[in-house]
Amino acid sequence: MTVAHEHESGVEEDFLEDIFVTDVGLTWLASRWQVLDEVYAELAGPNPLDGGHVTVWLRLAESSVDQFDRSKAAQLGQDVQRLLRSPLPEETVRTVWLAATHGIFDPREQGMSARSWLRRAEEAWLARVLEDDPAFVPPPPQPVTDEKLRRAVLQEIHPVARRLGLAAEHPPFGTPVTGLVQALEQVVTESCADLGYRLFLRAMKAYQVSADKPSLVALGERFGYPHGLVHEGLNSRPD
User: Fold this and answer.
1) What one-character-per-residue DSSP string does 126-141 give?
2) Which of 45, 70, 175, 237 is most buried, with most CB under 10 Å away?
3) DSSP label at 50?
4) With the CA atoms of 148, 90, 58 and 230 taken in that order, what torsion angle do they form, in degrees rounded to the nearest 10?
5) What is the mean pLDDT of each run of 10 residues along the chain (239 residues)?
6) What gap in Å lies between CA 132 and CA 94, rounded to an integer?
7) Closest to 223 measured CA to CA, from 190, 188, 181
8) DSSP 88-118
């Protein structure tokens, strides 16, 4: 009886945690563009911060370790490796990252390639993990390459492709992003359906493009996403 009670309690705790998990891994990091100024002010205080916003982003990568349990925290390293080990062109990687941040953080403007930026983010994350667990070994990236899931993600992208592309090309602020839809499709088909879907969702939320929320949530359930990951921040109102 005691064992059953403990199991039920664990399930309940996991469910409650998932309600508040609105993203994970690299797409969680990208979502932090919304609080960047606040974090910068907190870290810098009255003096300029060495390294500027790059330092803030690296600190945010480190903070993912404290935001999530071990399995969710490890997602950042897995996502980075899914992109780094893929054949995706540099411009594709830059495009999907830039759009996920609403054009707020462009590695090129900081003198880095997109892949160099991802390596630095991963290094900051891993250094923080090793502080708590010196024996930690990053798990393999295990990209989702199932063809049915890839097609399902592409089917969700297609109905909003034109609106999303235009929104990214003509944003109210941030660096305009061109070729976003094609880049997202490349991530889905050449790297990972899971990461491609989360990058698509992150871009939809960044640019407030309306979507068929039930359909997107249903696909998120197939990926096993936390409860709040798809619908939190998603615009379901007509454009």
Assistant:
1) HHHHHHH-TT--PPP-
2) 175
3) T
4) -20
5) 32 49 91 82 66 86 81 87 97 98 95 96 94 91 97 98 98 97 98 98 97 93 91 76
6) 31
7) 188
8) --HHHHHHHHHHHTTT---GGGGT--HHHHH
